[in-house]
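User: Earlier you gave me the apo prediction for this protein. Now I'd like the version with zinc ion bound, so I can compare the two side by side. Same sequence as before, with the ligand SMILES added.
Assistant: Got it. Here's the input I'm using:
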Amino acid sequence: MNLPQIYDGLTAGTMTFNLYGHLPARALERLLQAIQRDIKGAAGGLDGKWNMDRNDKKTMEELNADMRDFFQRAISREYRPGELMLWTDHPEYECQGCGVHMKLVCVNDNEIALKGYYDRKANDFVQHEAGFLCPFRDPKPTTGSIKIPSGIFVFGNFFNHIDDAPEGKRYGDIYELSSRQGRQAITDFKAENGIAYGQTTNTSVGVYVHPNKDSILIAETYLADGYFENLSDEEYKALSTADKKRLKKELSEPEGHKLKGQFSCGVWRWEGTDSKNVPQASLDLLVEQCNPAIKVKVKKGRWQFEHQHELPRDQHIWARLKLTDTN
Ligand SMILES: [Zn+2]
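And here is the structure of the complex with zinc ion:
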């Protein structure tokens, strides 16, 4: 198989593109684009596009001929079954589940598949048999637990006294925001340091506390407004004043929780911790960001939290925090 045949097979659907549940959103599109470029280049479609090096003794015509030759070699190359086809260090070949950079092979005339990945910890390429399923292929919440010994839970956008990763592991390790595995690793690291954390979009959130003081929700705050805005004129008119009041209360108090304050997620996240954990400098930073820290009184003990990073459009609760142990 050569690249033009692979292109035809993939676009006609006679070849499958099997990533075993890994989630590089645009891998197929990108592969097709790359092949298209090689085909175009070989046919002279990119002639004249090359930067002339000042020291280059070649004319543009000679450079064009060289480049056509280069692309022609790429598209003429025969890929044998099982032969590694692409070494792809591009973000679009990175799995948004487990974070690996994937390598594809031409399995046979009918299949391009994931064969292995680059293991950043081992700094080496790891081969996998076909069928290596992504362990993070299904979305699941990030989870953790922290202690609140003082009974004052403090929330804000970002406490800057703890990094997202242990010293020296910030780059090139599993602690990354772009994959499900990475976000869970950051959550684990933060929780070990007493901070509950959840990655959001650029939004603002409210801190809602249940009157029993054993449950907190981090949720969008525009719910009631949004609900009424989405009604047609007839629907709105059909509501009695009592209906409106009841609905507004229900939507403003999700699952019986009451709003205690809100902040904007400029750093695309919320964080919460025991008030005793936060140095004054970190609280001052929150205030500088026009985000006063929100302190809520709750029951002392161990709190478990669960955060939904991939929040479906019709849902508005980012995270649930629950008291699990009063010791
Ligand atoms: Zn994966």
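For your comparison, keep in mind: Residues 3-127 form one domain.
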